[in-house]
Amino acid sequence: MRSRIVKSLSIAAFAASLAACSSVPLDESQSGSGAGTGGGASTGQIMDPFNPQSPLAQQRSVYFEFDSYVVPDQYRNVVEMHSSYLASNAQQRVVIEGNTDARGGAEYNLALGQRRSDAVARMMTLMGVRTDQIETISFGKERPRAHGNTEADFAENRRADIVYQR
Questions:
Q1: Do 60 and 162 touch, CB atoms closer than 8 A?
Q2: Does residue 36 contact residue 53 with C-beta atoms inside 8 Å?
Q3: Is the pTM of the predicted complex or chain greater than 0.70?
């Protein structure tokens, strides 16, 4: 009984921290004129992963620290946004693609990329997404987004991408 209460309080604290980290809705960050200047999807914000104007299409990557597969706090709202969409669209499926920077061996990076994609998937299931809606895969260091050798390039490649299936 006590562990159930602790779990409930932990979930409530997690939800409260996510609410505290929420960002300004994209439609409020513009000029503020015209329709849809309120917050959220109910005010005209497009929530369609296949529409380039949608936040679901624009914010698909979760970036990680070096040698880590812990989802950083700053990307929890991205995972929450996609989870909310997926939970209310049960027919929709995603593939979460784990990636790493070029440092380290191929096998190690494949394993790290898989742990990154699994971490995002685990967070999504905790937010109400069914496990049969999510597939995880690792590309390790084989699909870099940035091809340089600077820290900024490495940081751009340490990510998990949420890819919607048609």
A1: yes
A2: no
A3: yes
So what's the pLDDT on residue 7? 55
Measured distance CA(91)–CA(45) in Å, rounded: 21
Residue 71, number of CB atoms within 10 A of its CB? 19
Q: Which residue has the tokens 């624009």?
A: 58
- List the Cα angle 98/125/69 in 5-degree steps: 35
CATH code, 81:
3.30.1330.60
Task: Say if CB 158 and CB 65 are below 8 A apart.
Answer: yes
- Domain span at residue 142? 2-165
Give tens-digit pLDDT for 40-88. Answer: 444 467 899 999 999 999 999 999 999 999 999 999 999 999 999 999 9
Q: What kind and span of H or E run contains 94?
A: strand 93-99
Contact by Cβ (8 Å): 163, 123: no
Distance of CA 124 to the CA centre of its chain: 8
Helices 76-88 and 106-126 cross at an angle (nearest 10°) of 60
What count of other Cβ atoms lies within 10 Å of the Cβ of residue 152? 8
> What is the number of domains present in the chain?
1
